[in-house]
From TrEMBL:
<comment type="similarity">
    <text>Belongs to the radical SAM superfamily. Lipoyl synthase family.</text>
</comment>
<feature type="domain" description="Radical SAM core">
    <location>
        <begin position="71"/>
        <end position="287"/>
    </location>
</feature>
<dbReference type="GO" id="GO:0005737">
    <property type="term" value="C:cytoplasm"/>
</dbReference>
<feature type="binding site">
    <location>
        <position position="85"/>
    </location>
    <ligand>
        <name>[4Fe-4S] cluster 2</name>
    </ligand>
</feature>
<feature type="binding site">
    <location>
        <position position="59"/>
    </location>
    <ligand>
        <name>[4Fe-4S] cluster 1</name>
    </ligand>
</feature>
<keyword id="KW-0949">S-adenosyl-L-methionine</keyword>
<feature type="binding site">
    <location>
        <position position="298"/>
    </location>
    <ligand>
        <name>[4Fe-4S] cluster 1</name>
    </ligand>
</feature>
<dbReference type="InterPro" id="IPR013785">
    <property type="entry name" value="Aldolase_TIM"/>
</dbReference>
<keyword id="KW-0963">Cytoplasm</keyword>
<keyword id="KW-0408">Iron</keyword>
<dbReference type="InterPro" id="IPR006638">
    <property type="entry name" value="Elp3/MiaA/NifB-like_rSAM"/>
</dbReference>
<feature type="binding site">
    <location>
        <position position="89"/>
    </location>
    <ligand>
        <name>[4Fe-4S] cluster 2</name>
    </ligand>
</feature>
<dbReference type="InterPro" id="IPR007197">
    <property type="entry name" value="rSAM"/>
</dbReference>
<feature type="region of interest" description="Disordered">
    <location>
        <begin position="1"/>
        <end position="22"/>
    </location>
</feature>
<dbReference type="InterPro" id="IPR031691">
    <property type="entry name" value="LIAS_N"/>
</dbReference>
<feature type="binding site">
    <location>
        <position position="70"/>
    </location>
    <ligand>
        <name>[4Fe-4S] cluster 1</name>
    </ligand>
</feature>
<dbReference type="GO" id="GO:0016992">
    <property type="term" value="F:lipoate synthase activity"/>
</dbReference>
Amino acid sequence: MVTLIDTQAKRAARHPEKQKRPDSVILRKPEWIRVRAPGGSVFEQTKSIVKENRLVTVCEEAGCPNIGECWSKKHATMMIMGDTCTRACSFCNVKTGKPDALDPEEPANVARAVATMGLEHVVITSVDRDDLDDGGAAHFVATIAAIRAAAPRTTIEILTPDFLRKAGAAEAVIDAKPDVFNHNLETVPRLYLSIRPGARYYASLRLLERVKERDPQQFTKSGLMVGLGETKEEVMQVMDDMRSAGVDFLTIGQYLQPTRKHAPIDRFVTPQEFEAYETIARTKGFLMVSASPLTRSSHHAGEDFARLKAARAALEEQHRS
């Protein structure tokens, strides 16, 4: 059965670079991956705060399946530097094209929203901005500083681009000292050319390694999508690569195809397989692992950060005794 989820006009506007691709069948979702439609008073309140502060969220732009749950808990992942990405990854639903100029008021607007929502933990991500000399690093730094000033008790997690070929950009963001530095590898090296053509696997891996070299106490995090045609052995090799780079926290979730023009789903990975991946990852030494069909980088980020800190403290105590 095919589910139609986009009109041709809408998808052409968001993803003009994909329109020459042949349509692919969108597989019917299994029972374990369906979610309730968003709604409720807290959801509407969160939506209002986002709108009033002229913010963009990855929850909306990427079509996250967890938006109803997260916004009903006043959790939202802010996406800075606009809603238009300079990359054209075949898995992503964020609009691609030529971005607008940066909004100098955005860091303050984000910080005000964080303070208004009373967030204990916030996730800040962005589109790729290859058009900027620093890839948007200074905007990340300004946003972190603004949140620290407006909501000093809020812990900050950033989910960054790769800053590919942007000298000094990653270092500037690392030195801003977010509590968690997240950069997703997304998929296995073999699939990069078709899934993430604008990126380089080992450049992304090296970015995560550089965080640990520059600030060993900064938590690092990375994520994978499965169901794109990867093998179990390839996923395990990526786990080993991440651990070699010192990554603390691994997330693994099911890839969901946004439109018929995006990369097709190879298969739906079962909950039992996700449990097996989590067990394997924990034996490899990750401090924290989240693996399930609906796992996303920022899903339950606040609760997971608390567990991450506790896991490090327990490990340090174990080493002292």
